[in-house]
Write a structure and sequence with these properties.
heterodimer; A: mainly beta; seven-stranded mixed sheet; 11 strands; globular; B: mainly beta; six-stranded mixed sheet; five-stranded antiparallel sheet; about 60% strand
């Protein structure tokens, strides 16, 4: 099956802990994205990567970090510096190249993070 | 304010009726995309309309784009209970390597 997977589905974190959310895709897409969604809200872009070993901050990058060591993987770390991390996190990928995002994005099922 | 703003925020209709959702944006776009999200799930791409297109159909979906008014509408005809979901528009901005999503319309289809 081709697709994009995220794990875990639910994650609980104590305050002050870093946690890493996994995102893997086997669609051979160059571009990958991390979004945050709060209840009843739209998606806000955290980080994105157009190519391996390169990534850019999105609109709400503070308190988050990413890496892109492999084309198929784009893990997101939620650090203790993120003041309000409880949210639904969505990873996406697309077959983008170039300076504009033209194509549809394929989304994973999401990870719901709760800080206790 | 948001690049993509959707209207209404919530819509409740009877099964079989048509549902119309609107999206407005502020800057020039390459294309506009509509996505659907079932509760607690990821988004699914529905349809993409390019800036030089005015109307596009896919099954029971009809999307229009008016670049002079910077607005788009999504029409779902003959709605079904399974259409209950949130619907988001996303704009592909010229020169930007990302999509900008609206706040979404929560659609409820009553049986």
């Amino acid at each position: 099956d081709g697709g994009i997977t995220q794990s875990p589905k639910y994650l609980f974190r104590k305050e002050g802990q870093n946690v890493t959310l996994s995102c893997e895709q086997n669609l051979n897409h160059d571009a990958m994205y991390w979004y945050r969604q709060d209840p009843g809200q739209g998606l806000r872009l955290i980080y994105y990567s157009q190519i391996v070993n390169d990534f850019q901050k999105g609109d709400i990058a503070e308190g988050y970090s990413v890496s892109r060591e492999k084309k198929e993987s784009f893990p997101l770390t939620v650090t203790s510096a993120q003041k309000n991390p409880t949210a639904f996190y969505l990873c996406a990928s697309s077959n983008e190249r170039g300076t504009s995002a033209y194509n549809e994005q394929f989304f994973g099922p999401g990870t719901r993070l709760t800080v206790l | 304010s948001q690049q993509g703003e959707e209207d209404p925020q919530a819509l409740s209709i009877q099964e079989g009726e048509n549902a119309t959702m609107n999206c407005s944006y502020k800057t020039s776009i390459n294309n506009l995309q509509w996505y659907r999200q079932n509760s607690g799930r990821g988004l699914v791409h529905l349809i993409l309309i390019r800036s030089n297109e005015r109307e596009k159909h896919s099954g029971r979906l009809r999307v229009t784009l008016d670049t002079s008014k910077k607005s788009s509408s999504l029409l779902i005809t003959a709605s079904r209970a399974a259409d209950t979901a949130s619907y988001f528009c996303a704009t592909s901005l010229q020169g930007a390597q990302k999509l900008v999503f609206g706040q979404g319309t929560r659609l409820t289809i009553n049986p």
